[in-house]
Amino acid sequence: VFIYNFINGTWFQQQIIYPADGRNLDYFGRSLGFTANQILVGSIRHDAGARDSGSVFGFTNQNDIWVETDMVHQQNFGANERFGTSVSIAGDMIIAGAPNFLTAQNEGKAIFYERLTSGWTQSQVLMASNGDLGNRFGHSVDMNDGSVLVGAPRDFSNGSSEYGVAYFFELIDE
Question: Which of 89, 88, 90, 98 is CA-nearest to residue 139?
Fold first, then answer.
């Protein structure tokens, strides 16, 4: 992943970041999320316990140098789930999509993580409410101010293949 800074009207390359344990064909850089001091990078074919299960790598800005500080993966991962296909960060929360997750009722999921003192901890899993097989729920994600959007580009809700749907969720504090 190439990082650039915009200085006096010109873009300058600051740094290139890589995962510490990356391999050829991990697809590091498939998705990106960032804040001023944190970069998240999806690596959908990273083998985090199962083949092509996927991971999200976190980098923190330390004195203008981006340093790998975290690797996030699912608690219960399966082969080819492609976790990290999409990723978004807001404050101390991450959401990442795994659109190839498969159960008997559904395909795809989006997983929330919260930053605790011990690091990123999985807190909730979202799945499509209608349970269509093959909808690729989690292919895209975004969050802002307590609201979350999750894309399912191959959803069949209207009876037609690959029509696509965006699911809207609101975060409710308990």
Answer: 98
